[in-house]
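Thread: 3-hydroxybutanoyl-coenzyme A complex, take 2
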Amino acid sequence: MAHELENEDPIKLAEFQAKIDAEIKIEPKDWMPEAYRQNLIRQISQHAHSEVIGMQPEGNWVSRAPSLRSKKILMAKIQDEAGHGLYLYCAAETLGVSRDQYIQWLHEGKAKYASVFNYPSPTWADMGAIGWLVDGAAIVNQVSLQRTSYGPYARAMVRICMEESFHQRQGYEIMARLMEGSEAQRKMAQDALDRWWWPSLMMFGPHDSDSAHSSQSMKWKIKRESNDDLRQQFIDKTIPQAELIGLKVPDENAKWNAETNHYETSDIDWDEFWNVIKGNGPCNRHRLAHHIKAHKDGEWVRAAAQAFAMKQNNKLKIA
Ligand code: 3HC
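Output below.
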């Protein structure tokens, strides 16, 4: 990164940093350091991939939802996630890379998606835990990203955050209803919390001290709050929610510290984290194979849409 910045025009670099410091949004046509553009290409495209791959663990449950109401809610949520992916790919394309190229990097294993979607969703309670915890963690991260310095990314976040709140509430409602149910239903909810608690904390990334991108991302206000700060916000919010409905987070060291006004927790299993983001997550091969097949199966739809668009353009030219 440093050598890249050395190659930049120092005056332009200083003007760019002054815009960032003055909270002026950077727009696609503005001058930006190549390293800033590359960082955004990486982060926004991986964010988009996460939204789309995240549809898979929930898609498994549309045909097995316990009621028509819960099926409708789950379908609405999954459709929202597809839309989030769309906004984010559109934002990522403003950086000069095509969506096809982003998808190709994902399929080649050159781009990541959120580690949390590497885990299986074996019961209906997992739909509750995903909505409540995964979307809950996403809200904490994405509310902060609404203030990111790159204009198209910040604007995409505003729309996405409104829909995430519905996602989190419907997940929490599933967990609350299960906790009012039979012993078996209460156990199903607790087991799901046990499965999704630590992967949700991993969504915020490594500790700040191990974060390769954070310091530069904070300087350029791509990131407005650190990985650890956002994780702590999520923990402080979520443990009381669990206790309110009779659930217990799977961490015997989790306890409120009245002095710091935060919950203390055990440390994350960072070996698991780095192993999963290296591509060894329990469901990674399945998630990627599914995405590659769906992309291939959808080729004719994209070709038809492009042919139609070209025909319309030609009509406009002739008229
Ligand atoms: N999963 C996968 N990779 C992760 C990760 C995670 N949870 N946390 C960190 N990483 C990767 C980073 O991408 C980076 O690898 P790279 O250089 O190959 O990209 C490396 O680990 C080091 O991490 P850093 O902290 O240095 O990376 P960042 O500064 O990019 O911070 C981040 C990581 C906090 C995830 C940041 O990228 C971010 O805020 N991304 C946007 C939010 C996002 O992607 N959320 C994913 C979930 S989407 C979702 O929840 C959908 C919802 O609707 C359910």
